[in-house]
Every structure is written in C-alpha cells, then in structure tokens.
Amino acid sequence: MNFSPIISVKNHVHALLTVILFLLVNISINAQSKEDPNVLKNKIAKAESNPQKVELLLALSNYYLTKIGEEKSDLDNADLINTQARLLSDRLRYKLGKGKSILLGAQIYREKGDSENALKKANEALVYSKKNNLTELQADAYLELSMYGESLDERIKYKEMAIPLFIKLGAKAKQASVLKETGELNLMNGNEEKGLALLKESLLLYQSIKFTHLQGVYNLLSEGYTQTGNFVESLKYALLAEKIALKVRDSSLQLSAIYNHVGMAYLNLQQKNNSQEYFYKGLEIAKKYKDTEYVRTIGENLCSVLILSNKGKEALKLVKEMQVNFPSSSTERQIKENYILLGVYRVLKDNEKATVYYNKLVAYYGKNAEKKAENRMQILRIFARYHYQLKNYTDLYQVLNRLESLATASNNGIMLSDSYLIWFKADSSRGKYLDAIKHYQLYKNLLDSIYKGEKSKQINSLQVEFETEKKDRNIELLTQQAKVQQIQIQKDTVVKYVFIGSVLVLILFLLVLYNSFRLKKKKNEELEIQRQQINEQNELNKKMLIEKEWLLKEIHHRVKNNLQIVISLLNTQSAYLDNEDALIAIQNSQHRMHAMSLIHQKLYQSDNLANIDMSWYIHELINYMKECFDTDKNIHFVLEVEKTYLDVAQAVPMGLIINEAINNAIKYAFPEDRKGEVRIVLKNTGENNYKLQIADNGVGLPEDFEETERDSLGMNLMIGLSDQIDGVFEMKNDNGLKITITFTRNTEFEVTAENS
Fold first, then answer.
1. Domains of the chain
2. What is this structure's pTM?
C-alpha cells in the first residue's frame, strides 16, 4: 500500500523554497563583507577624507550588519558608521557614497525589524539613484524593495525591474543571481513554466561566466519539476545538484536541502530504499545545524518512507525525537505531525490511537477535507486507508469517489492509481470481484504508464549515469587516498630511519655518558682519596696550630712573668738607693716594663694571639698610672679611644709612647698641685690610617725649650718608637702640650673584632 507525506508537492516546494531564498539572500549579503574589521579600521584611520574613506566606512558598516550571530550592539555600530559615511559623502559631495549609505540604512532598519522606516529608506534610495543616474544603485534599490512586497507578484515585479539594469551594466553575476531568485519566486507563486524558464536562463548565464557553485540552481530546477509532476527531470537535476555540491565541497545547510530533494524525487518514483538513504543524509546535516524547519520537513518525509516500508516503530521513534529536540509551536506543523502519527498507528495496527489522530484531522480539515484545497487529495487518501483498515466501507467509498474526482481533475496519475489500488482491495474484501478486477486493471494501467516504458529507461539511465560518476569519484578518491597512503608510507619510512638513527645516536650518547660516568667515578675516587689526605693534613695542621697557639700563650705568659720579676727586682733595688735620679730612673723603667707586661698579659688571656684591643689597653694603662701617681685629685683623664686592633709589633711601641707621654704630663704639666686635664684620643682617619693624640692643658713647654732637652731619654724613646711603627711624631704648645702621632695600621696578621 502506498503512502505519501502530508505535504503536497506544491506545499513542500513552497516551504523549502522560502528557506532557500532566505539562505541565498544572506549568502549574497555576507559575500560583501569578508574583509577583517580590524584591517578596515586601520585603513579608515590612515585614509584621507576622500571617496575611498567613504567606501571603507560603508564596508565596515556592512560587516556589522551581516555579521553572523549579530546582536543589537552590532546593528547600532552599523548604523553609527553608516551615518559617518553619509555625513562625509555630503561634505565631499560624493553622490554614489550618499546613495549607498541611504540603501544601507534601509537594510539596517529592516534587520532591526523596523519595516516601515526600512521601506521609506529603500524608496528614498530609488528616487536618489534615478535623480543622479546611478544605475547599479537603482538596481540594488529594486532588489531591496523586493524584500517588502505584500504579495509574491509585487516582489517578482521589483526583481524583474532590476534585471534590465544589470544587463545594461554587464553585471552577469548579479543578473544570473536575480534571474535565479525571480525563478524561485515564480515557483513559489505557482507559475512553474515561467519559473523553470528563468532558472534555465540563470543556469546558462552562470555557465557562461564559469561559475562553479551551480548546486543552488540545479536544486531549484529539481523543485520546479517536482511541482510539474515530472519526477524524472526532478531526479535528474537533484542528482546534478548533489554532484556539484560534493565537487565544490559544499557542506552547508543547502546540502541538506539537496539531499531532501533527491529523496523526494526517489519517493515520487516509488524507489523507497534510495529515498530513505537520502532523507537520512539530509536529516543528519539539518541536525548538525540545529535548524528546526529543515529537521521537521525532512524528518516528516523520512517518516513517510518508513511507514511505506512498514517500519512504524522507527517512524514513531523519529517523531518523538523531533518532539523533544526540535519542538514547534506552528499549527501547520502540529497538523502534519497528527497526519504522520495517524499513518504510524495505522501501520502498527493500533486503531484506537489512530482514531484519536483521525478525529484531530477531521476537526481541522473537515470529513472530506474541504477547507484546504491543496491538501485535499493527501488527506482523503489517508482517510481512505484509515476507513479501509477499520472496514468502514460506507465512509471509504465516499472518500474514494471524492479522491478519484480530484485526482482526475488535477491529472495526478500517482494519486489516482493509489485510489484504484485501495478500491481494488476494498472490493476484494467485500466479495465484489468484478469491480475489484476493473479497479485493479485501472491501477496497473496507470502505474505502467507512469513508471514503465521510456520514463523507466530514463530513470535507469540517470541512476546508471549517477552511479558511474559516483564510482568514478570513488576511484578518484581511492587514487587520491592511494597517493596519500604512498606519501604516508614515505613519511613512515623517513620516520623509521630517523627513529633508527635517533636510537643509534642515543646508544652512542649513552655509551659516551657511561664512559663519562666511569671516568667521573674514577676521578671522584681519586678526589675522595685526596680529600681524606687533605682532611688528615688539616687535622695535623690543626693540632700543630693548637700546639703553637698554646706555646705562644706560654711565651707571652713567661714574658709577662719575667717582666714582673724584673719590676720586683727593680723595686727591691730601689730600697738600697739614696740617689734621687737613680730612683726616678728605676721608677720610669718599672712603668715601661708594666706597659709592656700589660700587652703580654692581654695576649695570653685572649684567643687572639696576633692583635690586641687598644681601647682596653689604654684604659688599663691609664688606671695603672693613676694608681702609681695618685692623680685623682688634681688631674682628670679624658679618653676618646675607638676600638682598634694592633699587632704586637705596633702595640708595644704604642704602649711605651703613651706611657712616656702620660708620665711627662703627670710630672711636669701641672706643678704645685695644679689641676688640669689630660686627653687621650685614638681614632681612624680613613682606611687603615690612625691618629694618636695626647694633649694636656698644663703649662706646656717652656719658651727656652732647647734641642738638648729634646734629646732626653723619654723624648728620644717616643721619637724612636714612632719611627719603629712608621709613624709621624709631632709635638707643639697649644694651650698646653699636644703630642700627635699619625701611623698606618699593620694588617698582615689582621683578625676581625668579632673573631677576637
């Protein structure tokens, strides 16, 4: 039993033609805005105020207008930039730029949904183009006006007015495009003869300019021949559309429409398997683009084929999938869905559910489908099958009589043959065998006239030709794949040799690395032996150093003790002397020895055997002098001594110098118990340079101080000791006596204060 989709051939064409026309218009517009907006902005920034800048501004505005997934902000940008182009055109008196800006403004309004202002702008662009003799702009204005026509006739009129202008301009590509769009509108308007003629004219024009993307034209020709009932020609052009689409690698939504048309052509020619294959391919592409209208249209057609093949469960599953993933609130879609479900449940023998959907269709169309003339035969046929299945013969014969009358009037052989087949089965069921034979003969005669003879040969020829081309493409594809495989094999060979080479290099590297490791290990072993030897030597040196330090401390201790013994001997000797000068000499010697003894005492008590802290030493020496001479009552000592470390070679002479200077100050600077002050200063004057200053505010040197007195033991001792430390000795009266010695600290055995 035959079953066709609810969409009549004409309705099916109208539904898809509307979508295709929308797609073609968008493709045409988008083709104008391929340049990168950032590039356009840079060009605009660098351009001078001239017509070129106007064109750049218009191009940028058009980019935002035709941007995929545009938002309100994009349209606002397009409007703002277009206004800039309009103002600049006015300032430059650039008429073409101004006209383009007006037309672009119409397109922006249309895109915003403001049809009233869009139409005003389109008419303004048309008037301006005629006034200023701008032919191309005038043609484009007609095309824009064709977007607003209330009827298809009005839209066709504007398209036809644009065609001679493009012919005048020699713009063959635009002329061919408008011819195609006009042909499409004529098909939608039911004027198949004129529509097909315009499409063929468009095809020839495209071919003359070697335009390769002809799949859209072939697709429309297939639609046109489907409308006329010439299904062989419809299949021919549908297969050509597929061939071109695959050749130019078109994977857009248009390919889905092409597969749908091939499927419809095969369905109309009763070739269910081929039809099902193409509907599935078209449906997959429509799902990929998530286009509800396409998914629904192709899905409904596929359901029809599945019902024809008694695959009711698959059809029901597909309907439910569309309901969940691609819902539609359109009343027309709901009615088509009810139609499909009636067929599904009829095939599944679920008469109860089938009756539910039959009642829904009756409620919408009426029992004899009088409300929608274009769908009458489709609805009557599904009603006939429903009544036959439920054996409602009274209603069935009424429907069949009505269906025969409509099919005969419209010269629809397929529908008429289908009605005779149902009639034959109904007559056979009721035992009316003569009527059954008559209706079966009518069915066979019609079927033979439609599908056999010359038409059958044409179909077979088309299939053979297409299959041959398909095989040729497959051979070519296999050849290309073989070349790719050969290249891949070569690459794999190169990779293999590179890998082998890499492995060899890696092995060599590992050998070198191992050898290096072995040598390094051997070297480390040698270094370890050397380190152990060095450690042993260091331990020995450390022991020797400790012994030497101990011996050195012992020496300092012995020297200090010996000096103390000498001091004690001198003290004992002084008890047997009555000579004042001798006693003074012994006393001075004791002081000098004590000054040296202090240094050796400090050295053996300290961890630092090389240097002595002079700030500590000077304090100790002054305290000793104060005790010896009992000067606390009349002499005040002021010490300004920085923490300074000197080695023994400098510390001993420095101590003797200080001893002599203090000794002299106590004895001679303050006669008759005169009170005064002695200031001792030791400070750094830069780097390792130091200054020692011993000053008093006593009587100072007498005016008749002579060289002979300068040659005294104490004076010579201070001068000689200054020379010994490479210092400069100075002595002068300055509100008393001031002795200054500048010297450089010896750093040969330097040890930091912290270490000390």
1. 628-744 (3.30.565.10)
2. 0.57
